[in-house]
Design brief:
This is PorV/PorQ family protein. It contains four helices and 16 strands. With about 375 residues, the protein is mostly beta strands.
Amino acid sequence: MLHFSRIAPALLGAGLSLGLATTGTAQTKDLTPKYSNDFLNIGVGGRALGMGNVQVSLANDATAGYWNPAGLLNQKAKYDAVLMHSELFSGIVKNDYAAFSMPLDDKSAIGASLIRVGVDNIADTRALVNEYGQISYDRITYFSVADYALLLSYARKIGAIEGLKLAGNGKIIYRNVGKFANAWGFGIDAGLQYEHKGWQLGLMARDITTTFNAWSINSEEFEGIASSQDSIPSNTTEITLPRFILGVGRSVKLPGQITALVAVDLEMTTDGKRNTLVSSDAISIDPKAGLELGYKNLIFLRGGVSNIQKIDAAKSFDGKGGWRPQPSLGVGVAFSGLRLDMALSRLAIEKVGDQGSTNSVIVSLGYGFK
């Protein structure tokens, strides 16, 4: 058996070395959009979002296909399904998610996850004024901008090392901007989890081979409306660079049939300097922390902090700068295989005047079939 004292440094070293390995691609990085496919980093599941998106070492149900597919081997039910709906920016952006997972045998499991993030009913007013110079509201049409992702997961226990699980995702991405443009993308994720004496460790490598989106532009939709200063977009390829998340968690029993689960994740991006607690041209690190208190495995209270950003006092509405986290709270109920989880998350950015709210409410429903 491999000892915990050896596995922990190995996982940390693997995460850092994988992240630093991308520093040799500076020229590619300069040409890469920093937030490419960022809809895949919003998060899924009321439990996870209530804990500040800390799940890489903890995921143990169908949501593991998103957070860390190695966790599919930890689910307690034979079949597990999860549905989620959330609305961001005062309901403008809809975030929907569905997942299903099941074991193949005592050493392997599979899962499938579907994600949609979109803005619907966007008005196209280009034809609002008719040929006589009159406004005609019946000429307004509507379209949607939406991003879709299908994740197919496979996980397997490694017999040579007790408590070690390896897994991978193959993902298909489709992005659509009404009738103006669409893109297809493909990528691969890899993950592992290790358990030893109550400690839970996880490492997730997203877009490990880089993910490519091939954009197809309908140039005919832009002809006649682009100004002389604008150029009509052309077909192009968008690249998403790897992202690595290292997580550790531990559960302890408290008096009164109460359990406490504490976890920390370190999310490392390789697409240039970001507004994170640790930031450099080579790698940026965003630490996250989460806590879950459970009573008799029936009722759960959760909290977490993530997305720590430095706010410029000159650009802040209250005139105060400094580091500000994105806090989150959540509650959950589990009974007879049914799980209802709710989360409330507040963005770290400033609220713009009195227009709308930076709070987001997330609701997810899960069920484990025996």
